[in-house]
Amino acid sequence: MAQTNQTPADAGEMTQQEYSELVAIRRQKLAELQQAGKDPFQITKWPQADFAAEVKASFQDLPEDAAPEQHRQVCMAGRIMSKRVMGKASFADLRDTTGNIQMYVKRDDVGADAYQEFKKYDIGDIVGVRGYVFRTKMGEISVHATQVVLLSKSLLPLPEKFHGLKDQETRYRQRYVDLIVNPEVRRTFEVRSRFIRFMRSYLDQRDYMEVETPVLNTIAGGAAARPFITHHNTLDIDMYMRIATELPLKRLIIGGIDRVYEIGRIFRNEGMDPKHNPEFTTVELYQAYADFHTMMDIAEDILSGAAKEILGTYQVEWLGEKVDLTPGWRRLTMVDAVREYAGVDFGAITDDAEAVAAAKAIGVELADAAEKTWGNALYACFDQKVEGQLVQPTFITMYPVEVSPLTKRSPADPRLTERFELFICRSELANAYSELNDPIDQRQRFEKQVEQRERGDEETEMMDEDFLTAMEYGMPPTGGMGMGIDRCVMLLTGSASVRDVILFPTMKPLDK
To answer: Could you give the CA distance from residue 468 to residue 405 in angstroms, rounded to a whole number?
Structure first.
């Protein structure tokens, strides 16, 4: 059994020596139990039938002189979170998956030997308890124990009560401890689970089929992002971990599955910050014979509907802002947004050079790898001057074709595409298109992306010949959308960092 020589970051004023002594004492207690034939790790099962939240919610007072057998009998299990030993009787707080309940353990009721063993139990130990439910003189609903059994020995001390586990790095690295000592953290992941369940139910009720597509691909496509690369030993080829599920799902649309979605992990070998983790979760959905307006309605329905069902309100607070998710969100073209927020009217500009000059005049610079075009100038102005001002839910529509290689052109203006991104609190939460279904146009755009890649832009699309072949069989008009689940949960829980809504976020090893 491996020993630990590291004091937890949140051990309060505890020194390394004090911590090591506590660990040694706990291991000695375990050794004594094992020598006495009472090894808790040999117990394989406990008939847990009752849970703290339900027991307290359904409690009914009985007369003070009611006999023990008249009270509700329970069989519970959980972790000891605190203990108060007082001679012949003791109190302890038991925490199970639903919450805490107080235990009252009396020597005369559990037996002298069992009571002596209970007094040696440590904070963090997992126990099973049988008994009956009553209300103490202090008014607290409690379990009067008739049996207490040690089910698992905690060999490491939990963070000290009054300091808790507060260091963020430690909380992310040791999420298991975070969940034990900070029960409010569980609420975040309950909201996450409920949001995914709501979204899945919403799509299922509209006859979407949920599918699974490959994580490993020979081409990294469907997004502008740098992939992770691995090697397939049997085939002796390099493969890419997917950066999007878009192209496989579109193949299914071509194959006749008219409504399809996938909830899955995406991997992008890029930077890390409060809004980005290299491994994250999205939902991508595609609907034949629909367009990006259909996707806007779905995005609004899912987020506003989830807020109302899970939180009971359309009003949330996120990143220091009060956000109103009441349906009826603003829809604004990128040209109109740049005119309103940056004061430049790209609708009145037709020349590439004039567009680039207009962008530079307000302090916007185009990326070195970008072509100096009207579309790239428009997008750069939006990206640098407008996005940071969008707080309330806003759909920005009609993106330049240069930054939308998989999107159908606007019939009204071929420089633009039928695309939107949803912004809330200066953050993108969803991206959607009227999907490009012209294989000739798609090939030309892939070729443009390949040219950019050859100029050094590693985040552009790769040429996907098989996808082009699929398109040549005929793809119906289609609306498609990707929505970042992590950021949606950040919004619904008011979390400032994506690491707060991912159970096990990517972390640099301590020895690096």
So the answer is: 13
Q: Give the integer Cα–Cα distance in Å for 288 and 254.
A: 9
C-beta separation of 198 from 441 below 8 A: no
Using CA atoms, how far apart are residues 36 and 30, in angstroms rounded to an integer?
10
**Alpha helices, DSSP H only, in 68-130?**
107-110, 112-119
Q: Are 355 and 377 in contact (CB under 8 A)?
A: yes
Q: Are 416 and 434 in contact (CB under 8 A)?
A: no
User: What integer pLDDT is reported at residue 5 of this predicted model?
Assistant: 40
State whether the Cα torsion 264-328-397-435 is positive or negative.
positive
What are the pLDDT digits (tens) for 102-142? 999 999 999 999 999 999 999 999 999 999 999 999 999 99
pLDDT beneath 70: ranges in the chain: 1-13, 160-166, 369, 512
Q: What is the pTM of this model?
A: 0.91
The pLDDT value recorded for residue 512 is 66
Q: Which residues contact 75 (CB under 8 A, 6 or more apart)?
A: 46, 47, 48, 49, 50, 128, 129, 130
Kind plus residue range of the DSSP H or E element containing 194: helix 184-205
Phi first, then psi, for residue 39 (nearest 5°) are -65, 115
Answer positive or negative: Cα dihedral of 341, 344, 345, 346.
negative
DSSP 8-state class, residue 12:
T
Q: How far apart are CA 336 and CA 347, in angstroms?
A: 8
H or E element in which residue 132 lies: strand 126-135
Q: How far apart (Å, rounded) are the C-alpha atoms in residues 335 and 80?
A: 60
Q: Which two tokens stand for residue 223?
A: 């997004």
* SS3 of residue 130 by DSSP: strand
- CA dihedral sign of residues 394, 320, 501, 507: positive
The confidence score (pLDDT) of residue 166 equals 67
Tabulate helix, strand, coil % of the chain (nearest 5).
35, 25, 40
pLDDT at res. 243 = 95
397 contact partners, CB below 8 Å, separation of at least 6: 292, 331, 332, 333, 334, 418, 419, 420
Q: Could you tell me the two tokens for 469? A: 């072949």
Structure tokens of 336? Answer: 């109109």
Nearest alpha carbon to residue 449 among 399, 397, 401: 401
Residue length, the chain?
Answer: 512
Residues forming beta bridges with residue 358, ordered by sequence position: none
425, 321 contact by CB (below 8 A): yes
